[in-house]
Amino acid sequence: MPGEHNRLDAALAAVAAHKIYGVSYAAIAEILPRFAGVARRFEVLLDAPGVAVVDDYAHHPTELEAAIAAARQRFRGRRILGVFQPHLEARTRRHFPGFLNALALLDRVIVVQDYHVAGRDGAGGYSGAREMAATMQALGVLDVHHASSPADAVERAAALRAPGDVILVMGAGDIQETGRELARRLR
Fold it and tell me: The whole model's pTM is what?
């Protein structure tokens, strides 16, 4: 799996398996190369000559940066189209500058309407997605679009992608089917 964060996770898991359960490092070294990863953590859903689709649970600026860096490592020289859905109003407001900085690492981005959680989000109708898209457009940071829903994001990503693009879908809300739908559509 690409990404420094994934290598560190694997190393820490190996040490824990050895220290806690007595698994030998030789056994770990034999098994680890066969580990295919877990769902929604840099999960490559499609890797075809003209397009790749990757799904990642990243929903914090640091996680977005790590997922984007892993995509740049795994798909060197290819354009990255990010599809991101903010999750939780308080997190979006608190980390707004960090989200902008992370998303600016992409070549293009579609910001999907926020995933609101009843009882955890305000009732004021705040749209971090609209604010992110508008701010990046005003700054001229990159080619940015707003999608009103995950289904709209599928339509926009399919229309915006160019041959060779990598579509990196990120978020913790109801965005999780977006990558799978894109992979089905683009096969």
Answer: 0.87
